[in-house]
Amino acid sequence: MPRSIGEGYLLGVDIGGTFTDFVLLGETSGRVMTGKVLTRNDDLAAGVLAGVRALLTRYNIASGAVRKVVHGTTLATNALIERRGARTALIVTRGFRDILELARESRYDIFDIDLRVPPPLVPRRLVFEVTERIGADGSIVEPLAIPEVAGIARALKDARVDAVAVCLLHSFRNPEHERKLAAALHEARPTLAISLSSDVMPDLREYERASTAVANAYLQPIMRSYLDRLAEGLRAAGIGADLMLIGSDAGTIGREAALRYPVRLVESGPAGGALAASFLGRRAGEQDIIAFDVGGTTAKVCVIDGGVPERADEFEVARVHRFAKGSGLPLKVPVIEMIEIGAGGGSIARVDELGLLRVGPDSAAANPGPACYGLGGELPTVTDADLVLGYLDADFFLGGAMRLDRERAAAAIKRHVADPLRLSATRAAWGIHAVVNDNMARAARVHCLERGKDSRDYVLLAYGGAGPVHAAQVAAALGMRRVLYPLRAGVMSALGFLAAPIAFERLRADVGPLADVDIARANTILDELTGEARELVRAAGVPASSCNVKREASLRFAGQSYALPVPLPAVRLTRAHLAALRAQFVAQYRKRYYRLNPDVPVELVQWRVSVAGPKPDLRIAPVEPGSRNARKGSRPVYFAEAGRYVDCAVYDRFALGAGKHLRGPAVIEEPESTVVVGPGSACAVDRDGNVMVTLAAGRRKERIAA
Fold first, then answer.
1. Given this model, what pLDDT does residue 449 score?
2. I want to staple 467 with a disulfide (CB 3.0 to 4.6 A). Which of 16, 100, 294, 551 is the partner?
3. Which is nearest to 539 in space by CA: 294, 337, 286, 255?
4. R_g (Cα) of the chain, nearest Å
5. What pLDDT score was predicted for residue 366?
6. pTM for the whole structure
7. What are the start-end ranges of the H helices in 248-380?
8. CA pseudo-torsion sign 643, 644, 647, 650
9. Any idea of the CA torsion for 471, 476, 477, 480, to the nearest 10 degrees?
10. What pLDDT shows up at residue 323?
11. What is the spatial distance between Cα 194 and Cα 80, in angstroms, rounded to a whole number?
12. 616 in Cβ contact with 644 (< 8 Å)
């Protein structure tokens, strides 16, 4: 029988491309319980519900004791990539029917004569024009032709359209026409899902605004179906807590906000991981870290300065060439700034037509999975290589819940890599491991350099199921000396969800010279944005008195295309504040780019308001190692520094008490991940069970196994 309902529990659920992770945290005891299951891509909701039931049963927790559920899902991202959203139409200003087809008229690879671009989510035949015109200043140049809406509604019905996006010219300055059009459409077809660009993202750049509004409409019906099923399933299981969702900016939003703005759920899982890295880094006394998350399909890198992850307001999804900027669909939504690399445990290794070893970006994912899973996969992957090299224990994968087949892994590597390259299986496995490490290190180095950061000034914080296996080699390649391995690294994104405050951000474009800003209008816009964000946060259960309001203005030098955010004072703006804003902008610009444009006037681009509830005060109990021996035994592990397999000590992560010191070579295991410590590196365990590794000085020359 489940234990009686006393202590409340917080539940975090993260659906990844290969695994779905669960974290259950006791509100008062700080006890952390975890679970990990293969992702059911055929029915995500059923997979989550089965995993929740298994977790509660395993730890004997009554379902009614779950007081909070925070969920991150890949459904939105996968629907955009796999084109599994609703049948969607787009309505635009007459004369702008080809906005999605024309896009930016730029080429992400100027030398590729066969260059492909992502097809729009809405085909041209489902793009409808309406007579109207709003001027760049927000004035009505031509009234909206309401009688035309009836004909459009009939065409939408005939085309069996389920969702429609509306993106009219300059609607970010004046949304009147979009709102009237939406009202007329709703009257004609009440069940139609409607997304207005002036609501979803009232920002300049017509194509990006249209792309974002279309993606939002495209996702609304399927997200409603999924979240309704999941919420109903949780209630049926006895969990009465409201379902909360993690957004792409690492803020928690309520279910209604998620249904209204599902495009903000894209990339929610990685955002949770970055938030967890920030939270755990601060607890460990490390404010400047590089978060390094390697899962089954991809690796993500995020720079965190002063305990705060970098943010952006635009990113791409569904890239035709996965890691080529400009080859995807742009989405203008607030997001944690990170780089994604096609490198993970499931990344497939092969020899290309030039006889070179390639790893990724394609992945075996959960189905069929790596060869060692024994689920039908026949191609060698990074996980297969790690198993052959001894980094993973075939009998302790997922804590023993899933046994790996080392012979299958070795056979796949021999057939597809070792034999074509005339290498031993060990040398081929190390080659796979080294290539994927180099891919990740090069991408991380470029990501840092593009932001003016020196990776040597940071601590690498490694998490994800595969991150701790590869982190030491990646850190060494980046010139970093220290690596922090948090406890429960394999489910850290799900833990990060529980540390996310309820928050929502609103913005509005308002382009013009900073010196000419209409102060009264600016204060009106800021008040409106604050009210909109407050209402969404209040609907998620946060009273107005508990809200924290952060306001920003985005500024640029006249003639530039992109802007920098500058904090605004909490009081009502006066003209005296404008000079201070300009000085702050110049200081930020100098810090970022060094060179200035002293004779060029500064422009305002947009106002931005973020409203957040209190940060959750998570209590995480220290791990009690008990009296059991931390050393589990030993096994042969390949280290390039030695050029051979070394008899390596294997430790139980949960039996290592605070203050414990180790020296490599060593392997430290927990059910969801494995830490590999190279020869000569020193380890220290802190109060939270995190392992800080100081790498051996300098990289010894790697010797290749015979």
1. 85
2. 294
3. 255
4. 26
5. 67
6. 0.85
7. 255-260, 268-283
8. positive
9. 100
10. 61
11. 18
12. no
Residues paired with residue 24 on neighbouring β-strands, in sequence order: 11, 33
Q: Which among 459, 481, 460 is positioned nearest to 471, based on CA atoms? A: 460
The per-residue pLDDT for 658 is: 86
Cα–Cα dist 264/506, whole Å: 12
Residue showing tokens 């035309």 = 148
Eight-state DSSP code of residue 502: B
How far, in Å, CA of 514 to CA of 127, rounded? 37
Which residue type is seen at 192? L
Going by their DSSP bridges, the two strands 315-317 and 631-639 should be labelled as: unpaired
Tokens 């980094």, residue located = 391
Sequence letter at residue 27: E
Chain CA centroid to CA 183, Å: 34
pLDDT of residue 604: 96
**What is the predicted pLDDT for the residue at 699?**
42
Inter-helix orientation angle 467-477/425-450, to 10°:
60
Q: How many CB atoms lie within 10 A of CB 523?
A: 14
The predicted pLDDT at position 1 comes to 45
End-to-end CA distance of the chain: give it in Å, rounded: 57
Predicted confidence at residue 613, as pLDDT, reads 93
pLDDT in tens, 613-666: 998 888 887 777 666 788 999 999 999 888 899 999 999 988 888 889 999 899
Sequence-distant (6+) residues with CB within 8 A of 43 are none
For residue 381, list its beta bridge partners. Answer: 348
On the question of a cis peptide bond just before residue 202, with omega within 30 degrees of 0, the verdict is: no
Q: Which residues of the chain have pLDDT under 70?
A: 1-5, 322-323, 366, 625-627, 697-706
